[in-house]
């Protein structure tokens, strides 16, 4: 009886092995192709699954306004899709170049009260925020010893042109502390010549650290982890240092849920970039053909 049961069990296993296709590998842990071998070795060495990153996800740095608001209360799929179509149509009419916080821009807008019906402003980008058609950026410059800031809507139809004077990044995501810094860090001539980098070079990071004026300040800069300020400690008292230590929250950088609430899932990003990828590439190629004969200008030395 026992011999008969053992024989029937072997026959069932042999039949199942013939029926189950080779792609179904739950009964075997051996890789079958060269790619599977490489993945299997990587899994054993790292202990994690390999995730193939979509190269279009890098667009989140160049076109951050195409990503919707991470807050689910302000999400609307239909509205976001219609806004992306309007943004692409606007980009086909005007060249909106790549820029970051810390870049120096020249913006020309229609102004019925200005001479020539246009107004041109040059300044450093101190903030870039918003999503969709509500995306905006702020430029700052010191004119006649007076700080001037203008906030523009990125897709404002009154904007005639946006020109990059100097493409670079800074050490911080926002440069509001320039309001309390020495004026030379925010002073730019309206006749600056644009500096054009060779194609394919990475965006340079300006490591300059500004010097703040004595107090009072507009904000408590000592409580913010700023990398672009050099002399905060010179203007602090002992009780302010104590309060700063009490206000620190070093555990927030390990809060995964807080980071998750501030970002868009990769699945949604893949869907968005898959929708606008081809049109953005076509616009980029057309701009390259137009500006193919531009001279290359070496960036000048920055303030130290």
Radius of gyration: 28 Å
Shape: globular
Number of strands: 5
Please state how the strands of the largest beta sheet are arranged side by side. 4-3-2-1-5
The H/E string reads HHHHEEEEEHHH
β content, as a range?
5-15%
Give the biggest sheet: 5 strands, antiparallel
Mean pLDDT: 82
Instruction: List the uncertain runs.
Output: 1-7, 15-46
**SS summary, helix count:** 7
Distance between the termini: 91 Å
Polypeptide structure, described:
Belongs to the bacterial ribosomal protein bL19 family. GO terms for molecular function: structural constituent of ribosome. InterPro entries: Ribosomal_bL19, Ribosomal_bL19_sf, Translation_prot_SH3-like_sf. Keywords: Mitochondrion, Ribonucleoprotein, Ribosomal protein, Transit peptide. The chain has 304 residues and is an alpha+beta fold. It contains 7 helices and 5 strands; from the N terminus they run H-H-H-H-E-E-E-E-E-H-H-H. Helices cover 31% and strands 14% of the residues. Strands 4-3-2-1-5 form a 5-stranded antiparallel beta sheet, with no helix packed on it. Strand 3 and strand 4 form a beta hairpin. Helix 4 packs parallel to helix 7 (266-290). The N and C termini lie far apart (91 Å). The model is unreliable at 1-7 and 15-46 (pLDDT under 50).
Topology record:
Blueprint: H1 2-19, H2 34-46, H3 59-62, H4 77-93, E1 104-110, E2 118-129, E3 136-143, E4 146-153, E5 159-166, H5 238-247, H6 256-261, H7 266-290
Antiparallel strand pairs: 1-2, 1-5, 2-3, 3-4
Helix pairs in contact: 4-7
């Amino acid at each position: 009886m026992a011999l008969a049961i053992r024989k029937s069990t072997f026959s069932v296993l042999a039949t199942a092995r013939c029926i189950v296709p080779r792609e179904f590998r739950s009964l075997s842990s051996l890789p079958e192709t060269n790619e599977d071998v490489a993945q299997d070795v990587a899994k054993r060495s790292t202990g994690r699954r390999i995730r193939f990153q979509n190269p279009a996800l890098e667009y989140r740095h160049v076109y951050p306004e195409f990503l919707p608001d991470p807050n689910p209360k302000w999400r609307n799929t239909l509205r976001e899709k219609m806004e992306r179509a309007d943004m692409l149509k606007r980009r086909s009419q005007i060249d909106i170049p790549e820029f970051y916080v810390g870049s120096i821009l020249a913006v020309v807008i229609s102004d019925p009260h200005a001479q020539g019906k246009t107004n041109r402003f040059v300044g450093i980008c101190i903030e870039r925020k918003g999503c969709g058609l509500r995306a905006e950026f702020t430029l700052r410059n010191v004119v006649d010893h007076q700080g001037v800031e203008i906030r523009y809507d990125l897709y404002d139809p009154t904007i005639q042109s946006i020109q990059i004077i100097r493409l670079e990044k800074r050490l911080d995501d926002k440069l509001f502390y320039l309001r309390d810094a020495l004026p030379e860090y925010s002073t730019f001539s309206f006749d600056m010549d644009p500096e054009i980098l060779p194609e394919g070079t990475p965006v340079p990071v300006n490591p300059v650290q500004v010097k703040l004026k004595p107090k009072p300040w507009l904000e408590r800069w000592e409580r913010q982890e700023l990398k672009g300020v050099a002399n905060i400690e010179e203007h602090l008292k002992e009780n302010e240092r104590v309060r700063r230590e009490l206000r620190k929250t070093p555990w927030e950088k390990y809060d995964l849920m807080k980071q998750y609430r501030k970002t868009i899932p990769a699945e949604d990003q893949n869907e968005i970039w898959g929708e606008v990828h081809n049109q953005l590439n076509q616009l980029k190629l057309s701009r390259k053909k137009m500006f193919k004969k531009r001279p290359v200008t070496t960036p000048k030395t920055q303030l130290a």
